[in-house]
Design goal:
The protein is of the alpha/beta class and 379 residues long. The chain folds into two domains: 212 residues, Alpha-Beta Complex (Quinone Oxidoreductase, Chain A, domain 1), CATH 3.90.180.10; 160 residues, NAD(P)-binding Rossmann-like Domain (Rossmann fold, 3-Layer(aba) Sandwich). The chain is 24% helix and 23% strand. It is built from twelve helices and 17 strands. Strands 3, 4, 5, 8, 9, 16 and 17 form a seven-stranded mixed beta sheet that branches. It has a six-stranded parallel beta sheet with strand order 12-11-10-13-14-15, with helices on both faces. β14, α10 and β15 form a beta-alpha-beta unit. α5 crosses α6 and α8 packs parallel to α9. It is globular. Bound molecules: nicotinamide-adenine-dinucleotide and zinc ion (2 copies). The site of nicotinamide-adenine-dinucleotide has 34 residues, from α1, α5, α6, β11 and α9. This is Glutathione-independent formaldehyde dehydrogenase.
């Protein structure tokens, strides 16, 4: 089968690799209809996440079940399914408590809980930017979708970023009527903004410096804040009579940078501590890592000096981590079918898998007009 392979920093290509097959009775093999490039893939693409050369990338997958193992009874050949990026066993304590992102059995890496497709440190599983994908524990993991091809670009957001944006809002302790500030208008930040609107936020401020991404925030009735035009904290304070916001969502991660591109891993956390009110909450879904030799200063060892003193003094709360997709994806499917949610509003490109290397380059540069890329392996 053909698949997108990581060859080294800023070098990916589509190659022939061994077919995805049934390896365990509880597996399924999916024929991929749509697979997206994620901001998380860019950390690897830039050579910042310690991924092995030869890895097949891709954790935002959906498609049609091609084959099931003999221990798979619910999911059937021909079913249209969304594949959560978490690979979870369904029987450990974390899975039973609804935290599939911290599954205790699927990641063989010492000290790591939680596994994913085609991702550094997330286990030996190949990704889905390919014609086919092997899905472990298929009955537990797969979300069955209505048949046909309707809503394909909405449903494809159910594997990761719509649940992740929702999780960021949830972790912040959000309540209807709250004001929310979101750092980052990438796909995840925009999904958090969409969530906050659907769930009844009073105001939603979205911070970035790219006009195309900020425009998408305006289109869903959020207030764009361009941090290249001045301190984002001051801009939000000015817009709220000096009050600030009740909730903050971090949707950038440890590669947060200033307008000149210099990285400051603490920048967005400090901004949120400043702009969120006393007793407010912050949800961090942008990724932070325990080590990255290419990070400035002590952040290379995961030690990020942020304004913990003010955070404590204001009595704020913070939640962090990978999103447990299964906690939210069914509800979100219902919201899409009911016409309440339309996460496809961020899609800028739908292209064949063969054009992925070029798309990676554009998306990595955050080039104007490249807001979310969907790959079509069978096109
Ligand atoms: N927790 C999870 O489960 C999960 C799932 C998916 C993605 N992620 C992470 O979410 C983050 C965002 O991913 P994405 O797909 O939206 O892609 P992305 O990386 O393209 O989006 C990040 C955006 O942040 C902006 N940005 C950079 N510095 C900033 C600053 N100082 N202030 C405000 N904005 C700033 C960039 O301009 C960019 O538009 C990444 O770290 C990704 O790894 C986490
Ligand atoms: Zn993703
Ligand atoms: Zn588990």
């Amino acid at each position: 089968m053909r698949a997108l392979v990581y060859n080294g920093a800023r070098d990916v290509s589509v190659k022939e690799v061994p077919d995805a097959t049934i390896e365990e009775p509880t597996d399924a093999v999916i024929r991929i209809t749509t697979t997206n490039i994620c901001g998380s893939d860019l950390h690897m693409y830039e050579g910042r996440a310690g991924v092995e050369e030869g890895t097949v990338i891709g954790h935002e997958n959906m498609g049609i079940v091609e084959e099931v193992g003999p221990g798979t009874t619910r999911v059937k050949k021909g079913d249209r399914v969304s594949v959560p990026f978490n690979i979870a066993c369904g029987t450990c304590r974390s899975c039973n408590e609804g935290w599939t992102s911290f599954c205790e059995r699927t990641n063989p890496t010492e000290g790591m809980q939680g596994a994913a497709y085609g991702y550094a440190n997330m286990g030996p599983y190949r990704g889905g930017q390919a014609e086919y994908l092997r899905v472990p524990y298929a009955d537990f993991n797969l979300l069955t979708l209505p048949p046909g091809d309707e809503h394909e670009s909405d449903f494809t957001m159910l594997s990761d970023i719509f649940p992740t944006g929702w999780h960021g809002v949830e972790l912040s302790g959000f309540r209807p009527g709250d004001r929310v500030a979101i750092m980052g208008a990438g796909p995840v930040g925009l999904m958090a903004a969409h969530t906050a609107r659907i769930r009844g936020a009073r105001d939603v401020f979205v911070v970035d410096q790219h006009p195309d991404r900020l425009k998408l925030a305006s289109e869903i009735d959020c207030t764009p804040i361009d941090f290249s035009k001045g301190d984002p904290v001051q801009q939000i304070l000015d817009a709220t009579d000096g009050e600030g916001v009740d909730r903050g969502v971090e949707a950038v991660g440890w590669q947060a940078h200033d307008t000149g591109g210099d990285e400051h891993p603490e920048l967005t956390l400090d901004n949120l501590v400043q702009v969120v009110k006393a007793r407010g909450g912050i949800g961090v879904v942008g990724v932070f890592v325990p080590q990255d030799p290419k990070s400035p200063g002590k952040a290379s060892e995961g030690r990020i000096g942020w304004d913990y003193g003010t955070f404590f003094t204001k009595g704020q709360q913070m939640g962090t981590g990978q999103a447990p997709v299964k906690r939210y994806n069914r509800q979100q499917l219902d919201l899409i079918l009911a016409g309440v949610a339309r996460p496809s509003f961020i899609v800028s490109h739908e292209i064949p898998l063969d054009e992925a290397p070029d798309a990676y380059q554009h998306f990595d540069q955050r080039d104007q007009g490249w807001t979310k890329v969907l790959l079509k392996p069978s096109a």
